[in-house]
């Protein structure tokens, strides 16, 4: 029988009086990969950050090797053998691989306490060898690719003898090839006895490598089940049911003529012959896991990838889009995933929104401040940003609120084709509904949307058609009665 190394019992957490976690109990066994899945904003990361000591729970207990732990912080968690890695985890690009591997606890001589470089090198070499990963220890970390940096972080876990590894959406930004390498090393780490909590929306990989799967919905663990081929259909059905509860209803749509057609689109990084189309007033989704190529496709359509080749047709006319400026001239907008790029930090919400279309709030080259505020207010009110925040610098807003301002800016700029990469990933459920409603209204007015997302419920609830992207190509296209959450789950995990 496997030994349970960690157990979280009846964990509850609220922020500003709003419950985020509701009495979650979940365990982790030695040498196990336990996948935590669920929609964005349901509390997965909060639960893992509690285990890692970054956040304290309001109620509940954490047991390690059967022993109840007193309240602890992230530094004490490391001493307990708990390591947390997220996409924004601390690393220092200008320092070497070796220095990053021992960033928090560089070996010292037991008597003189001088930095012990020889011991550090020996431990680092041994860890890299276990993961079958070769990299010069003296190489600057910033010169490595995204996948290589993450492998360095995994190797550092072996150096520090971590018992529990928490990976929170760390696969974001990896290509299909890098993903295969990364997960292969993850399994090697598991075989060394490390126990792993894996927070991800990559269902295909979950079914391939996880030993246990737990679904979190509405801040609660709604089910937990051992992963096996025999239970594959059962797990798919359970995932579909939970996502269905949070799905948003489609609004009636009447798409017009074709405004965008892409034929055999290739680039140097991820695209391997993409074909898709988009009609006026249509909302089309592109569903894909990390490394599928969906973000690369979005950037290519917006002119941000000079290596992109293929045929792009706008309203029946073939065009070449080689820069963001050209994309904007063709009235194409692009909102990147979780980024404040495109916002001016020291300007307020109103100024940032109207900056994209100053002519629209000006008379004879003079800015109409009253018109500017009323124009921006429409979007700010609909997206739920309180009035007292409108004149604050956007740097003082939360990441989710910045996401809303950026969306408002593009919508105000007379964009006719809008490309959105994970548009609601930082938003709570209420704010997401606000976004969906305004997108539906704008689609009814003739704006076309291409939504790149890993959120199955979001795409099933909002889109007229959905492409499922895998390995740089469109593997499936679902529309009409075939466009269901269950079918999307199957397409994504097959």
Largest sheet: 6 strands, mixed
- Round the Cα radius of gyration to an integer and report it: 24 Å
In order across it, which strands form the biggest sheet? 6-7-8-3-9-10
Instruction: Tell me how many strands there are.
Output: 22
Overall pLDDT level: 82
CATH topology of the largest domain: Rossmann fold
When the domains are counted, the total is 2
Spans of 5+ residues with little confidence (pLDDT < 50)? none
Specify the CATH class of the largest domain.
Alpha Beta
Query: What is the level-2 CATH architecture name of the largest domain?
Result: 3-Layer(aba) Sandwich
Number of helices: 16
Structural class: alpha/beta
Task: Specify the CATH homologous superfamily of the largest domain.
Answer: P-loop containing nucleotide triphosphate hydrolases
Helix content: 25-40%
Strand residues, percent = 25-35%
Note the overall shape.
globular
Straight-line N-to-C gap: 31 Å
Description:
The chain is α/β, with parallel strands linked by helices. Helix content is 33%, strand content 26%. It has two domains: 4-246, Rossmann fold; 258-493, Rossmann fold (3-Layer(aba) Sandwich), CATH 3.40.50.300. It contains 16 helices and 22 strands. Helix 4 (117-130) crosses helix 5, helix 5 (146-159) packs parallel to helix 6 and helix 8 packs across helix 16 (485-493). The longest helix has 16 residues, at 176-191. It is globular and about 75 Å long. The two termini are 31 Å apart. The mean pLDDT is 82.
